[in-house]
Fold:
Amino acid sequence: MKTRCILMWLSITTAIVSGTGPAIGNEPNNPLAFKPGDKGGYTFDTGVLKGMLRQDGTSRALTSVVHIPSGTRLDGSVGIAGHYRVFTKNKRYGTAAWDWPSTAERLPDGSVKTLWPAAEGRPFEMTALYTWTDPRTLDVETTVTASENLSGFESFFASYFNEAFPSPYVLADTEGPKILWYFLRGEKNLGDWLMFISKGDPRADVIQDGRWLLEPNPVKWTVLPRLDAPLCLRRGEGHKLAVVVMAPRQDCFTVAMPHEGESHYSLYLSLFGRDLKAGESAKAHSRFVVVENVSDGGVDRLYGQYLTQLGQ
Structure:
């Protein structure tokens, strides 16, 4: 099984990089396609990862996720790669996007699109497109279309992992005149709830407008202006497995996490952070990857490959 997965991943990666291979979604019995499951949900088994999307028809993203080679359960609490809090300036739209009414459809290429229509008190439509790019890599494209002017729109993209992944890291830069990137571990001495933003990013004002003090479950973040890029991960112990979450700089303005060992075992991306005019649409990209025995340099290379695939 492991040999088959490696060969499949190499062939898919070659096709993506060269542009010469067949479209993944057009392959017979595509192993990277979501399959219809029970109660409006979808299953997946890429050969490396298996689990559910929209279990019981809810929009709580990936659940019951298992890394097949190691047998490790990846997800915890409300799942991986889901849309949680949504804000505009000093306003929060309900408790979480995963509680809003939504529909989903499986597209011809095997991806799944979730739709949250505009509603009274929620003047925008939002969609999330889930696509397996290779057996270990999930891409999520989030689109919002405003039906009235929106100030400082933010979609807080959340992943909750199993307790097997206690140690969170973020790609940060050093303090002082010489800037060097490195992976900073989210240790308790930094604070309880940590939010990282790049120095000089004008979107820093967005997180200070009072939105995070709104009920339910307000959060007082320790804001650290030391983000090099929206690239973060959690490492496991023993089996040397890591889960990596990333986004392009222009699509994501903060990375957030609780301190190491805190029971949420989560990673968060703040997507968009911009004004939208009525009728305007915007997209944000994010990626979830599971890797074994990866170095810090290897994680950084994964990010570079991602940006190259996006044409950035």
